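Second attempt. The first submission of NAD(P)H-dependent oxidoreductase had a stray character pasted in from the spreadsheet, which I only caught after the job came back as garbage. Lesson logged: always re-copy from the clean sequence file. Corrected sequence (180 aa) follows.
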Amino acid sequence: MQKETIKIFAITGSTRRNSSNYKILKYISENIKTEFKIEIFEDLAGLPHFNPDLDNDDAPKEVKEFRDKISEADGVLICTPEYVFSIPGSLKNALEWCVSTIIFSDKKTGLITASASGEMGHEQLTLIMKTLEAKFEDETRLLIQGIRGKINEEGEIVSEETEVALQDFICNFEKQFIEV
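This time the job returned cleanly.
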């Protein structure tokens, strides 16, 4: 009997090409069980600025496609840096397009903040995702501080402590979906 594929929609909160946050999502996609298929969304910059007047059945095409990806996924992973003690504006913009929907309600979610400090951004991401009614636990949240010294240009985790934390995170994220 073939196992059913578990679809995960992963969002990198950085608009920078090959960012540390993208590398972490790639690492997770390469180290998660084979039942999981992870699609990494990298086009936050392609979403129009949130405008409540456009947040209706006729929302912009890019917004509809983004929302559909979240709706169709079994779970969502978000990995973001912290900018000026908050989440990046592009990620906040994307999440604002979801406020009037129920697409995150009870959606199994993993939250990672990987930045220089990240504490404030991590708190804000947690609050926003609670507001959107995403389903996550402390075990499916991870703060990685000083990320630049913990992952190299090739995307390899060079900090043993960070690798252990990511492996624990992956295991806890998987447990939401399958018995391990």
